Amino acid sequence: MKILLSDMDGTIIDGYDVKHEKDCEMLHELRKHGHLVAFNTGRNLQEAFFAIDQHHFPYDYLILNNGAHIVDNQGKELFKKVIPQKIGRQIIEYSMKFDNVMIYFFNGTRTIGYYQGKTIEHTHLGHIEIDDVDFIEEYQKAQSFDIIAVNQDDEGIETSLQIQKYIADHYGEYAIGTLNTHYLDITAQGCSKGSGMHQLLKMLDDPIDETYAIGDSYNDLSMIKEANFGYTFHHAHDDIKQATKYHVNYVYQVIEDMLRGEMK
Length: 264
Fold this sequence. Notes:
Layout (H helix, E strand, L loop, with lengths): L1 E5 L6 E2 L2 E2 L2 H12 L3 E5 L4 H11 L5 E4 L4 E4 L4 E4 L2 E2 H11 L5 E6 L4 E5 L2 E6 L2 E4 L5 H7 L2 E2 L2 E5 L5 H14 L3 E6 L2 E6 L4 H11 L6 E5 L6 H6 L2 E5 L4 H5 L3 E3 L2 H8 L6
Helix pairs in contact: 1-9, 3-5
């Protein structure tokens, strides 16, 4: 049995559109041949379903929050690791000092954020300003944090890197900030897409003969390097391509490699 571990943003979807219609078709084909599909993403559960429901992606497992949360396709939670309440609050409060930063966290039902004194929500329609909940009240009553995300409003990374260093210097025992293009994903220490992949493999009943992984960004490298066959895209940043053996244009081409000799 083989397993495909695929990133979502920039890999199988681009914004709100599927990258190539054949990608979804070949996911179905892969599962029809008895192999597994796992989306390995920085998205939380709600955000992952934005894409899954819109495009009807088939899957067996979701590795969420950069490896900190794993669920199966029946909604059963298999693994979860969180940022402690006090640590998460202090990271958010430090990040709020920067006027050019948007801050988000998942409160269990919604992904809400803060930008220049306003509460916003990340939905399938994009970022919208809301007034039915208050970001400050929500983060202060959170018992723990699945994932916190920050990004600069100009899509730069200078402030994000400063926040990343602050986390490493002050809370490295509890949390880690992983750069994902211009987003900084903050999760529990020890979590990455690579660790999520290994955690899932340990829990599977059937042995996996080959692992295939594809992604387009820095936070994908841990799974790309750990997989038997790691892929990125011809259009990816040179740093990503140099660290990755196989380069393609679309996900369906990885699946064609996986099924070579099995297709009739």
